[in-house]
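User: My advisor asked me to double-check a structure prediction for Beta-galactosidase before group meeting. I don't want to rely on an old file, so could you generate it fresh from this sequence?
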Amino acid sequence: MSTPSPASPPPAAATLTYGDGVLLRDGRPHRVLAGSLHYFRVRPEQWADRLRRLAALGLNTVDTYVPWNFHERTEGDVRFDGPRDLARFVRLAQEEGLDVIVRPGPYICAEWDNGGLPAWLTGTPGMRLRTSHGPFLEAVDRWFDELIPRVAELQAGRGGPVVAVQIENEYGSYGDDQAYVRRVRDALVARGVTELLYTADGPTPLMQDGGALPGELAAATFGSRPAQAAALLRSRRPGEPFFCAEFWNGWFDHWGEKHHVRSAESAAETVGGILDEGGSVSLYMAHGGTNFGLWAGANHDGGGIQPAVTSYDSDAPIAENGALTPKFFALREKLTALDGAAPERPLPADPPLLAPRELPVTRHAALLDALRAAAEPVPAPLPLSFEELSLASGLVLYEAEPLLPAGDHELTVTGLHDRAQVFVDGTPVAVLDRETASFTVSGTGARVRLALLVENQGRINYGPLLGQGKGILGGVRVERRLVHGWTIRPLPLDEWTPQDTARAAAAAPPDGRAGFATAALSVAEPADAFVALPGFGKGFLWVNGTLLGRYWEIGPQTTLYLPGPLLHPGDNTLTVLELERFGDRITLHDRPGLGPSEEYVETFD
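Assistant: Sure, here is a fresh prediction for Beta-galactosidase from the sequence you gave:
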């Protein structure tokens, strides 16, 4: 591990301290009233607006994760520019009078692809994630060498707004390698972190045992029963203040499930319970934002993958487009009524929206022809995984020409992650979405052209399957015989330039079924919109070359949030890659379509 330069300034006293169960800021009693807002889920042009809304909610602090894979997508290419400019986001928070909590991981969960860990790291053979495994620690050291000095420079003791830094993230829900958690803490300190350090884990003895560290503040994450959580922490850590590091006032969504909501009354009541316990709190989320591109993660329920939707609205008090919700006002009433609360801020108006309209669609290249033209083929005797192709996300087109005797034959795919559309001689014959899945093909004694278009629907972000590979990890069999001789095309959709999508769209004539399509949107003055694709099945939407994310008819989400900064005056181009079935128009709406809802409150029994 590297150490700070001898020229580093001497450590400053921490801004937040505690004693006798009371949190202090510069020696005076204080509550952290925070809200999570992730810079990586919001367009940089909108950071200042969203921070202003968070302050208007009555909060004094913003917290954010830092996703490693967002900053170092390719090994060695670490970036802090544009949407990755963490320092700019933090300084904007300071301009709004907000303190900042930074949660650098290296693992963050956050329903973010791979829990924030880079695919190039988790795909390394033999890698042991979130442990004292030497190669993992060495990679974390290199990342922290880039990240943590930047965070240290933004600490309150050096004139910045950062008042606390989290150690790892809910480690007690994952493992019990305490040496690893201590190593993460030591890595932060060695690189200049002098402000308050804390751990955050679920409110059970098992979770706190696994994640908390002696000598560092132990916080809890929960959605209900604040008195029970406070009692547990105080019984284990007498003298420490009660801090709910994540209060789940909403929840995230998976494709194919309902939209999760939590009533304003329920959220406000539980926040009131935390405050009645003398606690500090961070709302998760205060403003959720969007999983733009292909950054949405996935969970696994034991029966199969549960990919997260593109929206990360999370039923937060500040909606995905910045609108102020009834939950905003219910929580604001609680927060601003506290003794010593900051003066109420002016309430910003909801952001403007484009008028609803319909956009006719022009169809372009057919699906398989377009994708064949979009990538150079990679020959291999057996299917290669995404990791072997150095592909973090997107699609892979696998093609082979097995000889099939006359009659019906069962073909089986093993180790499928996550979803495959199967084509025989260009005709779709099956959709597979299980790790081992079979389909039937009729043979004539000749070779058939077999194509499997495999989609990575999001890397698992939570639990023991973290880091699981993508693609066809086993093989394809005709009955018991393996199919060899593959041509493979990696398709990193979220890395494509506007020229890449235009070239693919023009590569072949349409077939009327699936493939590329475009629509023109003319605006006099850019503003936000919600985009729907009625009649379309499943695919991806770009706006002026920026990939908004996935859409899928199974819902619950039926619109994609289109931020105004992605548009310009005049004509704008919407590009669709449809995998299954074209619709004939794209529609703009002035409200989100997040689907039928159900009340959801996460609890620990």
